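Pipeline run #58 for the internal structure catalog. This entry was flagged by the ingest filter as a single-chain record with no existing model, so it goes straight to prediction. Upstream metadata was stripped on purpose; only the residue string is passed forward. Reviewer on rotation: M.T. Logging verbosity set to normal.
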Amino acid sequence: MTFDRKCGAGAEQEEEADWLAGELLVPWDAALRQAWRDATDDDVARRYQVSVPQARRRLNQSGVRRLVVRSRQKRAASTRAAPF
């Protein structure tokens, strides 16, 4: 999805503004909680009153989904490991 931006800000400023908007709408810690609860994009969109694409973008770009998957994998591996 592309947007025609007319404000004259540079690409770096636009990127920072997009990041800030995401953080204001769905803060990182809230996104992390939703990822641990296996919330869908629709669930997050309803809860935080944002669009489904915005919810998806926030959960993916913030890295919380990847963090939860890796944490669960690490936890599962440690419970399968034999004690010394």
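catalog note: The longest helix spans residues 64-80.
catalog note: Helices lie at 11-25, 28-36, 41-48, 52-61, 64-80.
status: ready for reviewer M.T.
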